[in-house]
C-alpha cells in the first residue's frame, strides 16, 4: 500500500507515519530508493490502529514500542493498564487543581487565624528525608506503621496525629519530614518508629477543611498573616490532622496548619 492509501486506511497522517518511521515505531515494508516513497503492508494496519489509539491516550512512544513488541497478551495488557493508572492519577490531580482554581476565583474569605501555644508533646514518630512529590504515599505508610506499633504495644493515641515539615521540603522539594502520633508513655524503637518529643511552639493556626491537595489558599492566608504582622520565627511548618477519612493525605478532611511565630511578637487576635 502506498503511504497515502495506508494513511486513509489507518487515519494516521502522512506526517505522523513519517515520524513513526524516523523513531523506529512503525517501519514501512519498503522504501523506494529513488523517490523515497514509503510502502506498507496490509498486515501493518492493525499495529497502526493500536499506535493511533495509544497515542491519543498520550502514551509515550517508547511505551507504545513496548506494547507492540510485547511477548504475549498479558504483557501487553500490563503495560497498557499501567499507563491507564497513571492517566487516572493525572486526572484526579487535574480535578483537584480545577477545584482549587474555582475556590480562588470565588475569592472566599479565609477562615480566622488564631495564635496558639502548643506544649511539649511525647509522640511516636517516623522521620525521614522525603521528596515533595512522594509525600502522599510516604505519609500513608508512615502513619500505618506508627499505628501498627502502637496496637502491638497496647497503646492508644493521646491526640490527633500531626506532621513537621522542614522549610527545605517547600523550597527545594526535598527535606526532613516527621509524621507523629501523641502517646501517653514512651515506647522502644521498632523499625522506623521511635519516641520523640515534639517541641513546644508558638504558632499561628489556620483551619483547612478538605483534602490537603487544596490547602494552598489556607497556606497563602497564613503566610500573608505572618508576614504582614512580622511574626515569623524559625521552625518547621506543623500540620495537625484533626479529622481523617481514609489513609492518605488526599483523604484528610480537617487540618490545622500551624506556622511558627515569635513569642515576643505574639498577639491574640
Please tell me what the overall shape is. Answer: elongated
Question: Count of DSSP E strands?
Answer: 10
Low-confidence stretches: none
How many strands, what sense, and barrel or not for the largest sheet?
8 strands, antiparallel
Tally of individual helices = 8
Order of helices and strands: HHEEHHHEEHEHEEEHEE
The chain-level structural class is alpha+beta
Instruction: Please state the oligomeric state of the protein chains shown.
Output: single chain
Strand order of the largest sheet: 3-8-10-9-5-6-4-7
Overall residue-averaged pLDDT value: 88
Rounded radius of gyration (Å): 27 Å
Strand content: 15-25%
Q: Cα distance, first to last residue? A: 78 Å
- How helical, in percent, are the residues? 25-40%
Can you characterise this structure?
The protein is of the alpha+beta class and 269 residues long. It has helices at 3-10, 14-22, 45-56, 61-68, 73-106, 135-152, 167-171, 216-228, and strands spanning 30-31, 38-39, 114-118, 121-131, 162-165, 174-182, 194-198, 201-209, 237-244, 252-260. The strands form two sheets. The chain has an eight-stranded antiparallel sheet with strand order 3-8-10-9-5-6-4-7. The chain has a two-stranded antiparallel ribbon with strand order 1-2. A hairpin with a 6-residue loop joins strand 1 and strand 2 (38-39). The longest helix has 34 residues, at 73-106. The model has no long low-confidence stretch (mean pLDDT 88).
Provide the fold topology.
Elements: H1 3-10, H2 14-22, E1 30-31, E2 38-39, H3 45-56, H4 61-68, H5 73-106, E3 114-118, E4 121-131, H6 135-152, E5 162-165, H7 167-171, E6 174-182, E7 194-198, E8 201-209, H8 216-228, E9 237-244, E10 252-260
Antiparallel strand pairs: 1-2, 3-8, 4-6, 4-7, 5-6, 5-9, 8-10, 9-10
Helix pairs in contact: 4-5
